Amino acid sequence: MISVLSVAGNACNPAWANGAPSASSVTGWVIDDQPTAPNFTPPGNLQYNSTGQANTIQRTGTGAYTIEFPGLQFHGGSVSVTPTGQAAAVCEVVTWVKTLTGQQVQVACFGSTGSPADSRFAAAYTGMPGTTSPTGTVAYVKIDTPTAKEHFPDQDDWYATFTSTGPAVTHVGTGRYRILFPGLDLHGGTVAVTAWGSNAVTCRIIKWSGTSQGEVFNIACTGPGGTPRDTKSDISFSQGNDYLGINNTQEGYAFADRSKASSYTPPPAYTEDKVRTGTPQVTITRQGVGRYRADFAAAADPGGYAQVTAQGSTTNVCQAATWGQSGTGELVNVKCRTTAGAPADTKFTIQFVGTPYPAAIGVPAQAAVRRVFGCMHDT
Questions:
Q1: From CA 208, how far away is CA 348, in angstroms rounded?
Q2: Which residue among 95, 100, 242, 277 is least crowded, i.e. fewest CB within 10 A of its CB?
Q3: Exposed, middle or buried: residue 281 (CB in 10 Å: 0-12, 13-18, 19+)?
Q4: Which tens digits make up the pLDDT trace of 238-283?
């Protein structure tokens, strides 16, 4: 029997009940909206743990954080990190390790100049499969030998629903990598990339596509000033599910492939919007230079986790600024910029994952919506 976690609420942190855990993945995520707090336990709508336990965050220095995911006893797995909020920032996963009590993840954040800086961020850990297999197409791979010409990750460092043959990683040039996943030939889905280290490096997806050999992912990584940098990294792919492999939850993703269009719906193969009511649809609206809103019409949740990755051949970066439920949908605001911090129109991939929780305890739906926009992710 999984214990039920109830987090006391207040004006900006309504109480939530932890629902049934995911059996398809060993998963946890946190949203740190108190980046200067020495110790922080996010409220229930800002975290999830598939064992029903509470995750905690400790600030160990400027821009340095240690996350404890209790109960996540899994060797290997995948970690994704993205800065959140309005301030320009870069966040990386430094390392993660299975401990006697769960999973420990270290995160480092930096300002646009590359100096350590406290920053809001979203971080997630997942190991697959759990006791059941995730639905749809889900895969991840960790590149931990970034200068090897060719690299075949260990079994613990990759997972795919579609093959038992591991991926091959090719070092194409400084900061450039090609990942081949055999057994898949899709033209769609979504991709996220997280740099691994403590050097203010960011990674982006240049392109991905299906071939007769399998699915190919091309990524590029750069340091401060846009200089190409070799780095460890973590790549996640999904189609018909979320990156974390959590079945039966509200989620949506999109490839925002028109950086200057005022408003559009991305290609159907590159979007998903889980149906709660009505027809699923994702709309991307440009609100200004480097400012976008992703409107998931059906994938709604009063809390949830958002992941954004810049796409293309530029050195621009993107992050989730704010998000919250609006009626039956979810609105995610995205900010993209140059490595110097200037706003810049940029293509990007985005995924939103809702918490597998029931409704808020004693908090009317519209009040919860106002609190998400007004308190949870404000600046």
A1: 13
A2: 100
A3: middle
A4: 998 888 888 767 788 999 999 999 999 999 899 888 744 445 689 9
